[in-house]
């Protein structure tokens, strides 16, 4: 697994033992992604899923209203 990561230019990331807060931001994002993008959806191919995720990430980063920005989009 680690060799495959290295061969593909990826870096493995793991949180510290016993510290769930290390990954809180990503856990939050994936929870929102699942609830807003995946639930109730069926994808006909991996390509369709990849396209949907890329479009959602763009929406999330550029258009989605953010509470921490007092109701504004980024």
Number of domains: 1
Largest sheet: none
Average pLDDT, rounded to a whole number, is: 84
The helix content, as a percent range, equals 40-55%
Computed over alpha carbons, the radius of gyration is: 16 Å
Please state roughly what percent of the residues sit in beta strands, choosing from under 5%, 5-15%, 15-25%, 25-35%, 35-45% or over 45%. under 5%
- The number of distinct β-strands equals 0
Write the element-wise H/E pattern from the N-terminal end onward. Answer: HHH
Q: What is the end-to-end distance?
A: 37 Å
Molecular shape: extended
Low-confidence parts? none
Annotation field: number of helices: 3
Structural class comes to mainly alpha
Present the secondary structure layout.
Layout: H1 2-7, H2 24-38, H3 46-62
Give a brief rundown of this model:
By secondary structure, this protein is an all-alpha fold. The protein has one domain.
Explain how this protein is built:
With 74 residues, the protein is mainly alpha-helical. The chain has one domain (2-69). The chain is built from three helices and no strands. It has helices spanning 2-7, 24-38, 46-62.
Keyword list:
0% strand; 3 helices; 74 residues; mainly alpha; single chain
């Amino acid at each position: 697994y680690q060799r495959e990561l290295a061969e593909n230019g990826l870096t493995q990331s793991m949180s510290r033992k016993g510290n769930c807060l290390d990954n809180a931001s990503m856990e939050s994002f994936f929870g929102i992604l699942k609830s807003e993008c995946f639930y109730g959806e069926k994808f006909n191919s991996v390509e369709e899923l990849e396209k949907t995720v890329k479009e959602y990430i763009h929406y999330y980063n550029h258009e989605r209203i953010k509470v921490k920005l007092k109701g504004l989009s980024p």
